[in-house]
Amino acid sequence: MGKYFGTDGFRGEANVTLTVDHAYKVGRYLGWYFRSEGHRPQIVIGKDTRRSSYMFEYSLVAGLTASGADVYLLHVTTTPSVSYVVRTEGFDCGIMISASHNPYYDNGIKIINGRGHKMEAEVEEKIEAYIDGKTEEIPLAKKESIGATTDYSMGRNRYIAYLISLATRSFKHMRVGLDCANGSAYAIAKNVFNALGAHTYAINNNPDGLNINTDCGSTHIEVLQKFVKENSLDVGFAFDGDADRCIAVDDQGNIVDGDLILYACGTYMKDCGALNNNTIVTTVMSNLGLYKALDRAGIRYEKTAVGDKYVNENMTTNGHSLGGEQSGHIIFSKHATTGDGILTSLKIMEAMLEQKQPLSKLVEPVTIYPQLLQNVRVKDKQTAQEDPDVIAAVQSVEKALGDDGRILVRQSGTEPLIRVMVEAKTDEICQKHVKEVVDVLIANGHVVE
Question: Which end of the chain offers a freer environment for a tag, N or C, measured as fewer CB atoms within 10 Å?
């Protein structure tokens, strides 16, 4: 990962670690970069509902048009809609202004390449060099070369129509709850479900610029759980700020996270002959219970580093059709190139309706193992993880757990942390084994007091 761009764009507190100057320079570089390819660039921008999103939108537009790019504004929309518009309508790239599930005071800039995937790291590195003044100044466009800006809300409408077209049957008589997180989904999700005939009950659907993700959405799933139970709904779906995640709630009010969604959709797709290579792509953080259930179902799986970017890379390279993360980033490669929360909710509905089963029955074969994750702040991540005593402690835990659990010790990609995660049959076993490894880190002087 770079100085500014992580696995999911350039993210930080608005006007503190991510400023309007940063946004302007991102726009200046991208406009020049694509113009240098010998044509007038066309770049599409979407944003979520944060108050600062408008500020960053205007800064990006100023930078892009000053470098000679034409800009098309989708206004408030979802990250996957930007990806869809870019790849289906021939734009050079797309930009989404969002900090996803972060609080309202954060924001981010996600750049999407012309194929609808996240921008290549080498391009992000060039943008960082320009931001830091390590490259020559970029010339300003003059006269007729200055870029223009166009309202392009029709692009968002085409995306909505595309989602509606994917449904295999009507949602008539289905009672569905939607937690829109006061974010991007508010402008799309309810319209889609209404068009498909569902009795739709939307909550947290009134953004004011400051309430995005606040005690709502996929990171506060307990709100939707209560709503589903109190209103006797058939199913509920919670999205995050930019709607690239989905966490579901079944008819019993139980949480159906990304792992359970992968199981429900994966087994259905296998039965339909739509699970390419009979394989689901997960990250190393997926629960052991998912893998045991997939083994019983005769479905193979592959594991990547944490981040839907890595899941997507694996799927693209190997031709897999389903992958995702425990957090609810689910990718259906036949229909999208990125995690798409609303699309995920539609595919879950398809699995339920075609099999005539409630979601609780579809995920019943999966027994989720208790999991404990402890973040340990250390002086040096590499030194701590490579300590022979730490390695020996991890191996000892692996031997003790056998086939009834697992341990994962990894470095944080953004902070000076070692993450120690144990899954086992009980919470007590998890606590015991996490403590064994953390105690060694402390005893050997790696931990910051």
Answer: C
